[in-house]
Amino acid sequence: MEIKQINQPVSILSSFIAEMRDVEVQTDPLRFRRNLERIGEIFAYEISKTLTYQPKEITTPLGKATEWFPQEKLVVTSILRAGVPLHNGILNYFDRAENGFVSAFRKYTVNGEFDIHIEYISAPDLTGKTVIMADPMLATGSSLELAYKAIMANGKPKHVHLVSIIASQAGVDYISSILEEEPVTLWVAAVDDELNSKSYIVPGIGDAGDLAYGPK
Ligand code: URA
């Protein structure tokens, strides 16, 4: 597995992440979702540089041109529900990709511990394809691990790109350890140092699903 962090060198991406984090901007869910979407577009562009391309001759009004199209069969998948705007941003670039979805949610017990529940999966056959799996927050890595395993039951892909905007260092370390030998690239924008006692990323952003879709 390889890890790629895309917020270096500093670019406009940093200001999009700042808006996601900022309590004063977080009051606008439309802007929050739009920021997830445009960061998805940036990830898609970075991932596009790792794909293989085949040439195609195009007829313009004035002549012929050769342009290049991705050779891979792409499948964009995301973890419901916070992954949806990120998914849409990636799909803006890879608009011919197939799509998959998996739900993962935390069910808390009385003492503040939680189990992850996977209840919904929809995915095409992944055999030999390039899969992108989007989840904006990589906290402990448990949701991503279970969602990854659930989606991978649909066939063995050629390569998997895991995409998270904000990760904790513990989450990055955990995913690297369990997928060490797999053909996987973990893409992150920011890596924060800490998790709190409820396994939320600190400083993080809070709950990405609630910020995108409520309740407030
Ligand atoms: N999910 C979130 O939305 N935020 C976190 O900090 C951790 C998991």
Automatic annotation (TrEMBL):
Residues 13-214 form the Phosphoribosyltransferase domain. Pfam families: UPRTase. Its cofactor is Mg(2+). The keyword Nucleotide-binding applies. InterPro entries: PRTase-like, PRTase_dom, PyrR_bifunctional. It catalyses: UMP + diphosphate = 5-phospho-alpha-D-ribose 1-diphosphate + uracil. Pathway: Pyrimidine metabolism; UMP biosynthesis via salvage pathway; UMP from uracil: step 1/1. Keywords: Allosteric enzyme, Glycosyltransferase, GTP-binding, Nucleotide-binding, Transferase. PANTHER family: BIFUNCTIONAL PROTEIN PYRR. This is Uracil phosphoribosyltransferase.
